[in-house]
């Protein structure tokens, strides 16, 4: 019986070398998110900083990444995707190395901000580059991109823990070296078609994109979801009380969970359910998981289980949200991605210091409950935006219709 072929689906493994080069660099870029997790206590001890101060390593990185996302499409539409990617990678190499050389926590925080600028230029352009160059349609490309995110987040803590046993500076130098390799890979393998005429994007385009109801609702969902995401990622290393390698292995398992569900579970769910239904279901489970984490906050084993289960939920939500943004409007992918990602990263920027402050002022469980409440708000936004998000779900219905027609034709032969 013949199988259906949808423009939105395909094998993520059968890709041009250029796509793999960008995906490899994406893995390293996303390593930067979880890289500092295992070394947060070590940085606090070595640089005599409080948990709130060290949590600002996430805030400066994510805030600058989010704000810079608003101008990345304007830049890339003028100088091209390849140059934008390379500038982003070069900035990450420089600022990661400088963070490793810093002599104070304020210095590390500042250099992480510069790292965030490079990250924004790279990440927003990488997604549109992979989608544009990949074979198998946007569905396969987005799955590959989210897989890179998951692998990067998984390997980041493991690398951070391994190099962190030598020195807290080691993970920063390690990232600089790996990003330099990614730079060489893109220079060598990614070719831009000279015949392509670039249409410059207006500086106001990402702001105008927020006028599209679908993108606005998805950005709202991502904003509150990311608060729960970074409570789980940036706060839990403190109550866990593990050493660098213990934290590295814990968040390696968490990141593998993100990668697994991004690649294998999310596509299965969206074939059987509407995207918005998947979001409502999985976000609700994530909120309950955060509540459970708050209840077992004093149990090391219990909290580890909650972290890994949370990773399974995060992988699904990341993929489905990204797919939804790509389908929510007729805007260029780079513009939609920039607008949505800006709000998404800004949501994560406030979570780490907020969680540390709540833990100090109320109790160690309070940040987990606050994260759960934020994720429940994301669920409510998904319900409120069901009409605006109808286009996102129509893609699912059209895919099912095409599959049903293909099966019917196959059975008639």
TrEMBL record:
This is Predicted arabinose efflux permease, MFS family. Its main location: membrane. One of its GO terms (molecular function) is transmembrane transporter activity. The keyword Membrane applies. It is found in: Cell membrane. It holds the Pfam family MFS_1. It comes from Agreia pratensis. The keyword Nuclease does not apply.
């Amino acid at each position: 019986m013949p199988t259906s072929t949808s423009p939105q689906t395909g094998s993520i493994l059968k890709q041009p070398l250029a796509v793999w080069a960008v995906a490899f660099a994406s893995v390293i870029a996303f390593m930067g998110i979880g890289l500092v997790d295992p070394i947060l206590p070590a940085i606090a001890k070595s640089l005599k900083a409080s948990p709130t101060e060290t949590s600002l390593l996430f805030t400066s990185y994510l805030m600058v990444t989010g704000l810079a996302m608003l101008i990345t499409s304007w830049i890339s539409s003028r100088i091209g995707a390849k140059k934008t990617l390379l500038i982003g990678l070069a900035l990450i190499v420089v600022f990661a190395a400088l963070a490793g050389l810093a002599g104070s926590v304020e210095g590390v925080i500042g250099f992480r901000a510069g790292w965030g600028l490079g990250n924004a230029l790279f990440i927003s352009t990488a997604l549109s580059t992979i989608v544009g160059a990949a074979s198998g349609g946007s569905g396969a490309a987005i799955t590959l991109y989210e897989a890179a995110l998951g692998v990067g987040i998984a390997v980041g803590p493991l690398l951070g823990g391994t190099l962190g046993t030598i020195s807290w500076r080691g993970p920063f130098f390690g990232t600089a070296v790996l990003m330099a390799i990614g730079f060489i890979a893109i220079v060598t393998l990614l070719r831009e078609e000279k015949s392509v005429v670039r249409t410059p994007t207006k500086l106001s385009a990402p702001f105008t994109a927020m006028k599209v109801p679908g993108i606005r609702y998805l950005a709202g969902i991502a904003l509150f979801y990311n608060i729960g995401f970074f409570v789980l990622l940036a706060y839990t290393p403190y109550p866990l009380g593990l050493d660098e390698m213990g934290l590295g292995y814990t968040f390696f398992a968490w990141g593998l969970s993100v990668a697994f569900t991004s690649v294998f579970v999310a596509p299965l769910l969206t074939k059987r359910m509407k995207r918005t239904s998947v979001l409502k279901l999985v976000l609700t489970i994530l909120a309950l998981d955060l509540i459970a984490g708050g209840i077992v906050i004093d149990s090391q084993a219990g909290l580890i289980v909650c972290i890994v289960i949370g990773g399974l939920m995060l992988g699904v939500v990341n993929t489905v949200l990204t797919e939804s943004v790509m389908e929510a409007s007729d805007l260029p992918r780079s513009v939609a991605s920039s607008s949505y990602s800006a709000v998404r990263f800004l949501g994560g920027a406030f979570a780490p210091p907020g969680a540390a402050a709540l833990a100090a002022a109320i109790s160690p469980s309070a940040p987990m409950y606050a994260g759960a409440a934020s994720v429940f708000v994301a669920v409510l936004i998904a319900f409120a935006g069901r009409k605006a998000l109808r286009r996102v779900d129509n893609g699912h219905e059209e895919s099912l219709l095409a599959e049903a027609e293909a099966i019917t034709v196959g059975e008639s032969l």
